[in-house]
Amino acid sequence: MIAGRRVTLKSRSQIEHMCHAGRIVADVLDLLAEQVRPGVAAADLDRMADEFIRRAGATPSFIGVPGGGGLYRHATCVSVDDEVVHGIPTGRRIEAGQIVSIDVGAIVNGWHGDAARSWVVGDAPPRSHELVEATRQATIAGIRAATVGNHVRDISAAIEDVALAGRFGVVREYVGHGIGSEMHEEPPVPNYRTAGRGRKLEPGLCLAIEPMFTLGGYACQVKDDGWTVHTADGSRASHWEETLAVMPDGPVVLTTNDPAAWQLST
């Protein structure tokens, strides 16, 4: 997906709209988690997501986004095994033992929520399960580092530390991002340490943190469809993402359907 160029600090009311969008995204991912099983087609998962988002009064974020493959035409990205991100949900069917990553975005009153999850479908080698769990734990570590006064590099370092501890590859070409009235805003949020500290975190800054780990190296390639990113060495990948708001009392995860977590503190 194409990154924007703006950095914006959101008001409380704007973040409330993002909360609404984020809750819809979380509900969609919970729905899809029940459907990801051997034999289901990626296109069917996409159709379910599209219908759910629209019934909830929101608009899918991804449809119409420009990229190397033209305008994207789907409500989700469904990436399997060595596919890292931006997998097109075609009629191919999920198979037992695969890692399936699904990315979903929704817009409410012009404001975006964006999140992704990965699942191991059925029995698979232990390292596949460890990879998915490490990606989830890295997201949590990144969220905890998103406090006022820290810098983007603090988030990046927290994410990378989880990968290093588990001996996983960290994708470098694709990173997290700011989010708001545009799906992709500044600043970029790498999943690895950078030379500079990056932007200082301030109240009202909203970020989509999205670790992408592999069982091999970090190099990636784009398939002939112009969208699907896969590992150059063919190793399996996992993707996890949450949208959060940096707030005075700590980070608030917006892509959750837990009412207690969804309410912003005063």
**Which CATH-level-2 architecture?**
Alpha-Beta Complex
Give the neighbour order of strands across the main sheet.
10-9-11-16-17
CATH topology heading: Creatine Amidinohydrolase
Helix-strand makeup class: alpha+beta
- Structural domains: how many: 1
List the secondary-structure elements in sequence, H or E. HHEEEEEEEHHEEEEEEEEEEH
In DSSP terms (H or I, runs of 4 or more residues), the helix count works out at 5
Kindly report the name of the CATH homologous superfamily. Creatinase/methionine aminopeptidase superfamily
Please give the number of β-strands.
17
Please identify the oligomeric state.
single chain
Biggest pleated-sheet summary: 5 strands, antiparallel
Mean pLDDT across all amino acids: 95
Radius of gyration: 17 Å
Strand content: 25-35%
Net shape: globular
The low-confidence parts are none
CATH uppermost class:
Alpha Beta
State the distance separating the first and last CA atoms. 34 Å
Secondary structure: helix percent: 25-40%
